[in-house]
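So, read this over?
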Amino acid sequence: MAWKKAPQWLVEAFAELPLDDPLVERRKMFGYPCAFANDNMFIGLHEDRLVLRLPEEDRERFLETYDSEIFQPFPGRLMREYVIVPHDLIQRREELAPWIERSMLYAASLPPKKKKRTKKAKRPAG
C-alpha cells in the first residue's frame, strides 16, 4: 500500500515548528519529516496529517480539547500514544507549542530504542 506524499503546506509548517531544543533530532521516517528525542519519535508527518506522541494523561486531555483521534497509519493499526493534530491547530503555533514541548519531554523520558542487529549474510559453502 503506497502512502500519499505530504502536502507542501504541511511540510513547510512542520519545518517552522519550534523544534530547536538540543535534545531534538530531525530526520525522515518512511519519507516523512519527523523529530526524535532520545531516539524516540515524538512528532511527525504522515500523509496529510501531523501526529504527536503524548503520555496518557496529556493524550486524554488533547482528545477532549480538540477535534482529534488516535493515529492509525492504516485501518485497524492504532498507534495508541499518537494523536492527530487538527489542521487548524497547526496554524495556531502558540497554542500548539506547549503540546510539542510535552511530547518532546515525554519521548526524552523513554528509554532509547534498541538498535536492531543486522544479520550477516551467510557465505556460500565452498
User: Anything to note?
Assistant: Residues 8-109 form a domain with the Yope Regulator; Chain: A, fold (CATH 3.30.1460). The first strand starts at residue 24 and ends at 29.
